[in-house]
Amino acid sequence: MEKSVYSVREMTYCAIFAALLAVCSWVSVPLGVPVTMQTFAVFAAVLMLGTKCSMTAITVWLALGAAGAPVFAGFKGGLGVLSGVTGGYILGFLLCPLVAAAVKKVAGEKSEHIGVKAAALIAGLIVCYAFGTAWFVVLYTRNTGEITVFDALKKCVFPFIAFDCVKIALALILEKRAGRLVKL
Fold it and tell me: What are the sequence ranges of the domains in the chain?
């Protein structure tokens, strides 16, 4: 009998965090721009599940959404959401665990320090922002008209930076308080 790539515990946590991503995507606070909690769920998954399982949880959530399940913000789903102008930000979530892992690897033995974990999440968020903004500029220019990178940042990134920093802090607090319960 072959050994599974994932343990039952890992598969369970991947499923739980995919569901958490969906629920956090539905939580929306309209503050001029709608602010959801999906980035919090991504950050929590990265911190608590590690690279392999957080990538899997995000991939499962994306696959459910691509198949039409209403797991994205505003109870939306389907390939149209992912191929739309803001789809790059959603797809960019897949980069967060990889970037965070790279930052932690560079930090070496200090990788479990809260400052390193915060820096890893911030770096992942910056890469997600960059990927999503590039995607937005290309599709917006093709479909609507030319837009500068700065204008795209004003529309899609700047309004969310403070909220995403709060979500990083909340994920760090959650990991410190409950991380020991999630033992992978």
Answer: 8-181
